[in-house]
Amino acid sequence: MPDSNPLVLFMPSGRRGHFPKGTPVLDAARQLGVYVESVCGGRGICGRCQIEVQEGQFAKHKITSSNDHISAPGPKELRYAEKRELKPGRRLSCSATIQGDLVIDVPQDTVVNAQIVRKAATTRLIERNAAVRLCYVEVDEPDMHKPLGDLDRIKAALKREWGYETLEVDFRLLPRVQKILRDGEWAVTAAIHHDRETGTPHIIDLWPGLHNAAWGIACDIGSTTIAMHLVSLLSGRVVASSGTPNPQIRFGEDLMSRVSYVMMNPDGAEKMTAAVREAINELIGKVCGEVNVHESDILDLVFVGNPVMHHLFLGIDPTELGGAPFALAVSGAVHLNAAELDLRANAGARVYVLPCIAGHVGADSAAATLSEGPYRQDEMMLLVDVGTNAEIVLGNRERVVACSSPTGPAFEGAEISGGQRAAPGAIERVRIDPETLEPRYRVIGSELWSDGPGFDEATKEVGVTGICGSGIIEVIAEMFLAGIISVDGVIDGSLAEKSPRIVASGRTFSYVLKHGEPAITITQNDVRAIQLAKAALYAGVKLLMAKQEVDHVDLIRLAGAFGSYIDPKYAMVLGLIPDCDLDKVKAVGNAAGDGALMALLNRGYRREIEETVRTIHKVETALEPDFQRLFVDAMAFPNKTDPFPKLSAAVKLPEPKALVGAGNGENRGADNGRRRRRRPR
Amino acid sequence: MPDSNPLVLFMPSGRRGHFPKGTPVLDAARQLGVYVESVCGGRGICGRCQIEVQEGQFAKHKITSSNDHISAPGPKELRYAEKRELKPGRRLSCSATIQGDLVIDVPQDTVVNAQIVRKAATTRLIERNAAVRLCYVEVDEPDMHKPLGDLDRIKAALKREWGYETLEVDFRLLPRVQKILRDGEWAVTAAIHHDRETGTPHIIDLWPGLHNAAWGIACDIGSTTIAMHLVSLLSGRVVASSGTPNPQIRFGEDLMSRVSYVMMNPDGAEKMTAAVREAINELIGKVCGEVNVHESDILDLVFVGNPVMHHLFLGIDPTELGGAPFALAVSGAVHLNAAELDLRANAGARVYVLPCIAGHVGADSAAATLSEGPYRQDEMMLLVDVGTNAEIVLGNRERVVACSSPTGPAFEGAEISGGQRAAPGAIERVRIDPETLEPRYRVIGSELWSDGPGFDEATKEVGVTGICGSGIIEVIAEMFLAGIISVDGVIDGSLAEKSPRIVASGRTFSYVLKHGEPAITITQNDVRAIQLAKAALYAGVKLLMAKQEVDHVDLIRLAGAFGSYIDPKYAMVLGLIPDCDLDKVKAVGNAAGDGALMALLNRGYRREIEETVRTIHKVETALEPDFQRLFVDAMAFPNKTDPFPKLSAAVKLPEPKALVGAGNGENRGADNGRRRRRRPR
Q1: In chain B, whose CA is at the least distance from the CA of A615?
Q2: Dihedral angle over CA of A199, A204, A210, A214, nearest 10
Q3: Structural Rg of chain A based on CA atoms
Q4: What pLDDT does residue A1 have?
Q5: What's the mean per-residue pLDDT of chain A?
Q6: What pLDDT score does B517 carry?
Q7: What is the spatial distance between Cα A75 and Cα A92, in angstroms, rounded to a whole number?
Q8: Is the pLDDT of residue B108 over 70?
Q9: Is B266 an 8 Å CB contact of chain A?
Q10: Is the model's pLDDT at A120 over the cut of 70?
Q11: d(CA A68, CA A56)
Q12: Of A206, A427, A579, B339, which sees the most CB atoms within 10 A?
């Protein structure tokens, strides 16, 4: 027999069920597991539980929905609409009851079981289940017959109205309880934090009456840049995002120089800890200031960072990370109070730091893994985050492996003659005519090509100052595609006869990308630097592929700033990444920051990544006997031993040619060795 | 078929069982639930698990025990004996194995599952199960193949060796983990705290290698005196006990004057909080100094106190306790970190404060209830702690009721003409010859009676300066027994003819206890003050008896300083306490301090008293319509409405006589009203 009770369908989740007439819509949502926020517990005062009725016939769902099928606004709703304004069509689901079949829309902007993160290429939903929730309760007045304390009666109300069987309370609140309760005339809002897997939830703050604001911070502490999101824990919306340079740069440009600074200076770690915390506090002040959020309403903060950043942020000496066995002081997730780090947030705010995977593969990689989720799917996904080290994760639902490979700073433009950081004036795109060998390029800050009209005018102010990481990849790849560079990375000096761009410098040759002041030249050393960097990266990838026993990958995700700017095609032409359908290669931006955001909005993700990190198979390249061979093979463009059939289908790769005696001694046998196995010499 | 394995009997617990030959004695003890401490986890280095074999035939237990039935000392024991010394006969139970039938003695002094608390009249065993335990572990060295952090490997070792599935870690320790682990050459001792009912155990400190000291503090914060025990959490022994005056006395002698001080002074609560914490810190320094204990080895502290002391200690404004409805800020047990109170203890030490029963019945009463345990037995026990208020608890296994009654300060010697605090020179014992009405007395500091030889010599230095609480009870009771005072409390002026001790003073009469300088005289007002105080106490007792629907009590426990000094017989003669076999009335000293000690040594007692306090029926005398009538009835000696058959059997009570017109207007009908119900006028 069909259920004669009205049918209710919730969108966008599509969950549906039959409910007796008169059931509040909020109760129906709860029963179906549709997350609708409510701070006030259905008293019609917080306005968090808004929904809309979709009217019409929904043939697909065999349901006809109408505003006649929901109760007319009752006194609670009318009062709320009068005091706080309720947009036309909006209803409070705690008050509105089911009177017939309904299609209910849970709007994204007020509520929500979903959070939109805008990304370069994708939009994703994050189901919400924050570690902190706000619970409004009306508390019994003191009673001499039942002499429970103020706090104990608050706990009793939280048990009665919100189902909390046991609660711990931050001691700091005890001296304030009496006044809060009386100021609120026996009504309070409690912020309850339930992060720890096995622990009891904690009351971390109390406010008189209704308190309707709870904010969170997700922060990625990069060696170069600290990036931060400010998020409403009630609606799930990101309301401000910002970044600031990591002030530790003044102690050392890259990670190892910062570790060295600590080794040389007794108070080095302390100073860097203070510097990064101060920068984070300023950034918190900035994002809060932008949208007028009180810092005291920040109740939960999530941090990620590489192991050295992680240790310095937590006040741990990173010296051990400077040498084998690269021992982390702590690898598991860290839970603490924001006050213990002197962060600008609520005095009871909690901090969660994602776990580190290994001594070189940090909480940022864990967060990127959480964001991209290789372990959530069947396809074999390669996730690469390139910095001074490349963190490489490879896996699928069955198994995930990870390693770090020492790419060095070449990809970031360091150790490259004309290299510079990605900034206005830096060359980021290059094309070389294979016939004339003449280049054209674009610089950051302008959409124009150098050989087109208006370029000089457009770049007059900032000039053309150097070449950034993505530009280096492109120019070397184009040089390779134009036949200027051999598969072994030698600049072909014989072309100097054909083009004035090829010039001798000592015993090797260079390619002049730009004449004038400054001249920008790609030297043989620059090519070698990129070869070393890309060989390290590719050898790491190959090592993981061997561990997984696969000869190809299905998906490639390029994370981080470098990954966002390089053109996947050129990365593959040079052999930074293995052969793959080009449309399966995606730049995913700050995946670490996205992972931090996910862990902030849903504590289920914390348990998920902790469990994943425990099961990830960690590979230490320094201990792998094959790594050196893979590294040597990977010096070639794209690689000495691997075919690139999918790339070859999309891009015409030059026929390998022998370059004998090209004016230097570096030609290590420019045979067609790509399909032959060779032992390193 | 009888078990052919050897039989092992553990003393003093008497637990027994059969175990295969070769079983370590420690394992056998564990299996039987006999608590034998071990810090090092059976490595033979901590020496905490010592036992002794009792040799001989134990006919009662049908067992013959011999040192031949235990394994010869192995290398671990020999090494320990060499390095640390092992007393003759002592064995390490982790190393010694069962080879035949054994009677094993678990010595009190090293180990133990028992703690001797010396009390006025009793010795009790406290089974040990402290909230903090020390766990020594050997930790894996860092491994690049399994890149777990230092802390994570410590946790893994604690799981492997001690069975801890989940552990939280105080954040403060993170920056120290690396050095501790390396200083200990990959061995550490962790202090693990497991207090909270539902929470995860916490690592609160770490030491390199073996750390073999863990201390606790049990403290009773009285309005007048702060009393403290220093206890080994490993052996259970109390090694130092001390007390200090509560420095809050300078803000107000009694509780209400301290609350008034807070009401009048904006920083009053803050100053009193600082004062009491400072005094506690000094006391911690004193007890530690006496026995050379490092304050940093204090890992757990338990505090009790009345509601006002409780609030001021925790930094909570006690103003609400100054008037109806006498709302406590918190009534449940409080858990916090010692650092939050700036206490002199380990930086990770935890504090536990027992629950309060009601706005006038505090954590001290809860502790006394825990110590005396009315709820653990079938007999109806009355537990009375007399101070400015009397806290009264009455109950048995079935049900416990409690109230507070406003006795005022008369019992403490205040508001009494010759009254003084209990101190050398104060009269504490009095006898009056019923024929001659001549008194004799003893003073604190001397064993001699005033009419005996050597008294003047013995008291020459301190003199006879006044009369303390117990002396007042005795002198008035003796005056009553001698017929000087009527059942209604009127001093019989007609006796002035018979004895020069009875003198007129205005319209009433007085009794001169001591001539000379200072003269000590018991005035009619003094008798009235004691009558009011005892009537309040007795009315409270009667109210609780009515709640319990009983007409007698089986056991009486007198707690606190006053209870320790008064003679139960005189207390009953005056009707402070109800009729009871005199040998069932016991003074139990600082029962609150004993309860604190129990909660320190066994966290099971914390849960027990929390549960008990939840179920205690709280009676607020101010709300009870019967209280006023009971109070008026209780003004008579011993009481207007109750028979005292057991007391009468032991003490010859005077025949009530009418005292009409005894020179004042206070005679309210000196009939033989003790067996008649009367309504208050």
Answers
A1: B146
A2: -90
A3: 30
A4: 58
A5: 89
A6: 86
A7: 11
A8: no
A9: no
A10: no
A11: 11
A12: A427
Residues 139-158 of chain A with CB under 8 A from chain B are 141-152, 155
The token pair that represents B619 in the structure block: 């009676």
pLDDT in tens, B10-47: 987 788 999 999 999 999 988 887 878 888 888 888 88
CA–CA distance, B117 with B125 (Å, rounded to integer): 7
A11-34 core/surface letters (b: 16 or more CB in 10 A; e: else): bebebbbebeeebbbbebbeebeb
- Cα angle, residue A208 at apex, residues A206 and A210 outer, rounded to 5°: 95
Side chain identity at residue B96, one-letter code = A
From residue B508, alpha-carbon distances to B179, B483, B505 in Å are: 80, 16, 6
pLDDT for B419 beyond 50: yes
Integer Cα distance of A512 and A504 in angstroms: 10
**Residue A357 to chain B, least CA–CA distance (Å):** 8
Segments of chain B assigned to CATH 3.30.420.480? 215-353
pLDDT-derived band at A124 (thresholds 50, 70, 90) equals: low
Residue-wise pLDDT tens digits, B595-616: 999 999 999 999 999 999 999 9
B4 touching A, CB under 8 A?
Answer: no
Task: Enter the CATH code of domain A215-366.
Answer: 3.30.420.480
Least confident of A309-318, A502-511, A635-644, B416-425: B416-425
Domain at B215-353: CATH code: 3.30.420.480
B611 to chain A nearest CA, in Å? 14
Superfamily of domain B7-105 in CATH is Beta-grasp domain (3.10.20.30)
pLDDT of residue A663 exceeding 50, the answer is no
Tell me which architecture the domain covering B132-208 has in CATH. Roll (3.10)
| Facing residue for A326 by CB, picked from B144, B329, B359 | B144
pLDDT at B121 over 60: no
Residue bearing tokens 């290698």:
B209
Kindly give, in sequence order, each residue whose CB lies less than 8 Å from that of residue B244, ignoring residues fewer than 6 positions away: B225, B226, B279, B282, B283, B286
The whole-chain average pLDDT of chain B stands at 89
User: Do A142 and B325 count as a contact with CB atoms less than 8 A apart?
Assistant: yes
Question: What does the pLDDT look like over B187-215, one tens digit per residue?
Answer: 999 999 997 766 789 999 999 999 999 99
> What are the E-state strand segments in B271-420?
298-305, 334-337, 350-353, 381-386, 390-395, 400-405
A167, closest residue in chain B (CA to CA): B198
**Nearest-CA residue of chain B relative to A359?**
B147
* Residue B197, min C-alpha distance to chain A (Å): 9
| Range list for CATH 3.10.20.880 in chain A | 132-208
Cβ–Cβ below 8 Å for B174 and A326:
no
Instruction: List where CATH 3.10.20.30 sits in chain B.
Output: 7-105
Q: Which of residues 337-396 of B touch A (CB under 8 A)?
A: 337, 340, 356-359
Instruction: List Cβ neighbours of B228 (8 Å cut-off, separation of 6 or more).
Output: B217, B218, B219, B220, B241, B242, B243, B280, B283, B284, B287
